[in-house]
Design a protein that fits this description.
This protein has two domains: about 20-200, Up-down Bundle (Growth Hormone, Chain: A); about 225-410, MFS general substrate transporter like domains (Growth Hormone, Chain: A), CATH 1.20.1250.20. By secondary structure, the protein is mostly helical. It has helices at about 1-45, 45-55, 60-85, 90-105, 110-115, 125-140, 145-175, 175-195, 210-215, 220-225, 235-260, 265-295, 300-315, 320-350, 355-385, 390-415. It contains 16 helices and no strands. It starts with a helix and ends with a helix.
């Protein structure tokens, strides 16, 4: 009897301890993600100005961005699969180690070719998708959107810290020192991963040693990656994510050029503007999205984000100066944040927990696809039709997607009732 009593009392205690461990891991992951975004925005304070020094024009800078998009487009799904198979610690360690190499190559870049070469390690630089996988694995499905939005809060913190720090370091000490600082920061992130992140965050499942199972476990098994698109709702959500996200993706990719050519911003001023982005994103991700997801359905919030994005595009088409642009930042960051969090949450809920890393890898490949097409398309539109064309395309495309989802909604609700 006493043994039974101890067991029944011990079970809730063990569950509480397990929950504490999960929350500790999630908080450490939030810190690692915030640091990674800091180093990423630190790099944004270096690359455009170094590219200009080395003789890059708008078109060649677009080619450089396109190269990164292609590399990460190929690397994203494979990295997600790698994370599912080998665990969070190994995946995050690989991503942080790649960041160190990336910054060291940037620090010694003194020729146009070196700017292209230093982008090669980005094939493994997927700290954010790996962090999303950990948070997805350790959070309850009903709280997933809120937990993922807190990663967006980390993004805001990193954006402010990285942009401000990068602007100051680049202005006072130059590009090479700033890049070396990023390498040291990435090394610190790697130490945090090795110290605090568990080997795996997946629920333990029985293992099979059959030949088919071993083949299934191959990182390069494309069939295992593409089969996720066969789950209900995945393909439709992916198409919306790509089509509605493309115009805003083009504008984001081209923004560093717009800041330089249209707004005539210096590195330090650009840093302050990016910090403003970060503050807005922190407020939206930390204080708004959690409350919205508790009250409204994900499909309603998806519609809202696309509708707001179309209006943002219209406003950006007619902006004349940096003050006008600052007025569009709040609705722009709101629509981007809600759109990305909701689509990621919808997609991860559509697949088994054992495949969340691969699914988030596919989600990151959507962003990479936008960065691949974005620079070339954006450079062409900007050179031939001006900055207003970027906003007008965003308005037209998002309105079309909004109307499509609105017309499709009654049918979807009827299917759910049946």
């Amino acid at each position: 009897m006493s043994q039974r009593g101890e067991t029944s009392e011990g079970a809730p205690g063990a569950a509480a301890d397990q929950q504490k461990k999960k929350m500790k891991t999630i908080y450490i992951v939030y810190l690692i993600a915030a640091l990674d975004i800091t180093w990423m925005f630190l790099q944004f304070s270096v690359t455009p100005y170094l590219a200009k020094k080395l003789g890059f024009d708008t078109l060649w800078f677009g080619y450089l961005q396109t190269m990164v998009g292609i590399i990460q487009l190929l690397g994203g799904p494979m990295f997600g699969r790698f994370a599912d198979l080998f665990g969070a610690r190994v995946a995050l360690s690989l991503a942080c180690a790649s960041s160190i190499v990336f910054f060291l190559l940037l620090a010694i870049a003194d020729h146009p070719a070196m700017l292209f070469i230093h982008k090669i390690p980005t094939v493994f630089m997927h700290v954010l998708p790996a962090s999303q996988m950990v948070v997805t694995d350790l959070s309850e499905p009903e709280k997933r959107a809120d937990a993922l939005s807190k990663l967006g809060l980390c993004f805001g913190v990193g954006m402010i810290a990285g942009s401000t720090l990068g602007g100051h370091l680049n202005t006072r000490y130059g590009e090479a020192f700033t890049a070396c600082f990023g390498a040291v920061g990435s090394a610190f992130s790697l130490l945090l991963v090795l110290k605090f992140i568990p080997k795996t965050t997946k629920a333990q499942t029985p293992r099979a040693n059959t030949e088919s199972e071993n083949k299934r476990k191959s990182i390069f098994n494309v069939g295992e990656i593409t089969r996720l698109t066969k789950f209900p709702g995945v393909t439709a959500t992916f198409l919306v994510k790509i089509v509605a996200g493309l115009p805003s993706g083009i504008f984001q990719v081209m923004f560093s050029i717009i800041a330089l050519d249209i707004f005539k911003l210096q590195p330090e001023q650009n840093g302050y503007l990016m910090a403003y982005f970060g503050i807005v994103q922190m407020v939206v991700q930390g204080g708004v999205i959690g409350r919205l997801t508790a009250r409204y359905s994900e499909s309603s919030l998806l519609l809202l984000s696309i509708g707001v994005s179309s209006l943002v595009g219209l406003a950006q088409a007619y902006m004349q100066n940096v003050f006008h642009f600052c007025l569009t930042v709040i609705p722009m960051m709101f629509s981007l944040s809600v759109f990305n969090v909701i689509t990621d949450s919808m997609l991860t809920k559509s697949v088994p927990s054992s495949d969340t890393g691969t699914m988030l890898g596919l989600c990151s490949s959507v962003q990479s696809l936008l960065r691949t097409v974005g620079p070339t398309a954006g450079g062409f539109l900007y050179v031939n039709y001006g900055v207003s064309s970027l906003g007008l395309i965003q308005f037209v495309v998002n309105i079309a997607v909004f109307v499509y989802l609105l017309l499709r909604r009654p049918k979807k609700l009827a299917e759910q009732k049946e």
